[in-house]
């Protein structure tokens, strides 16, 4: 499972296109802010504008605009989501006016997008809570364990030869 989810994370676009042959996949929005000559709104203002869209949900991340036309991106976890850290729901806020430019609600996307949304939480163990994190941690230690036992077996075999 970790290998497949890791492949999807690294090669997201080819994986997305392949999945689109089987399941419906909708492109995520890519709104732009309109520079008005003023200053960008603060992080608190962006969070307040986004919170108005989902007042019962928890803000998990605020992505700062990368350039003059990029919007603030604010991610949310809804009370009925399966995971606690990762969020597929995003609100796009104009960095100058504070207006909501677009909303990507992970609960209202096609099945293909929902499948893609599950890869990262499965990969880092967040989808299965603490048990998932422990399983991922143990799976991460297994290659070291295999390496160590391989070296041990090689060393024992080598010492036996005259």
List keywords for this structure.
Nuclear Transport Factor 2, Chain: A, 4 strands, 45% helix, 162 residues, 4-stranded antiparallel sheet, alpha+beta, elongated
Write a structural description.
This protein has 162 residues and is an alpha+beta fold. The chain has a domain at 27-108: Nuclear Transport Factor 2, Chain: A (Roll). It is 45% helix and 14% strand. It is built from five helices and four strands; from the N terminus they run αααββββαα. The chain has helices spanning 2-10, 12-20, 43-51, 111-124, 129-160, and strands spanning 58-63, 72-77, 89-93, 100-104. It has a four-stranded antiparallel sheet with strand order 1-2-3-4, with helices on one face. A hairpin with an 8-residue loop joins strand 1 (58-63) and strand 2 (72-77). Helix 1 (2-10) crosses helix 2 (12-20) and helix 1 (2-10) packs across helix 4 (111-124).
Topology of helices and strands:
Layout: H1 2-10, H2 12-20, H3 43-51, E1 58-63, E2 72-77, E3 89-93, E4 100-104, H4 111-124, H5 129-160
Antiparallel strand pairs: 1-2, 2-3, 3-4
Helix pairs in contact: 1-2, 1-4
Structural class: alpha+beta
Annotation, overall tally of beta strands: 4
In the predicted model, the low-confidence regions spanning at least 5 consecutive residues are none
Shape: elongated
In terms of quaternary structure, the protein is: single chain
* SS field, number of helical segments: 5
CATH-defined architecture of the domain at 27-108:
Roll
Please indicate the percent range of residues in DSSP E strands (runs of 2 or more): 5-15%
CATH class of the domain at 27-108: Alpha Beta
Note the run of SSEs as H and E.
HHHEEEEHH
Helical amount: 40-55%
Kindly state the mean pLDDT as a whole number? 90
Biggest sheet strand order reads: 1-2-3-4
Report the sheet with the most strands, covering strand number, pairing sense and barrel closure: 4 strands, antiparallel
Per CATH, what is the topology of the domain at 27-108?
A: Nuclear Transport Factor 2, Chain: A
Radius of gyration: 22 Å
What is the rounded distance between the termini? 44 Å
């Amino acid at each position: 499972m970790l290998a497949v989810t890791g492949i999807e994370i690294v090669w997201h676009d080819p994986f997305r296109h392949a999945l689109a042959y089987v399941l419906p996949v909708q492109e995520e929005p890519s709104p732009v802010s309109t520079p008005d000559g003023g200053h960008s709104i603060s992080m608190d203002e962006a969070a307040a504008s986004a919170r108005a869209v989902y007042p019962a949900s928890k803000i998990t991340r605020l992505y700062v605009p990368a350039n003059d036309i990029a919007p603030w991106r604010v991610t949310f976890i809804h009370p009925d989501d399966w995971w606690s850290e990762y969020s597929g729901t995003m609100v796009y806020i104009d960095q100058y006016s504070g207006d909501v430019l677009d909303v990507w609600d992970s609960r209202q996307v096609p099945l293909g997008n929902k499948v893609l949304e599950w890869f990262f939480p499965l990969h880092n163990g967040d989808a299965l809570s603490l048990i998932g994190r422990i399983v991922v941690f143990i799976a991460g230690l297994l290659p070291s364990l295999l390496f160590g036992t391989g070296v041990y077996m090689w060393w024992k075999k080598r010492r036996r030869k005259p």
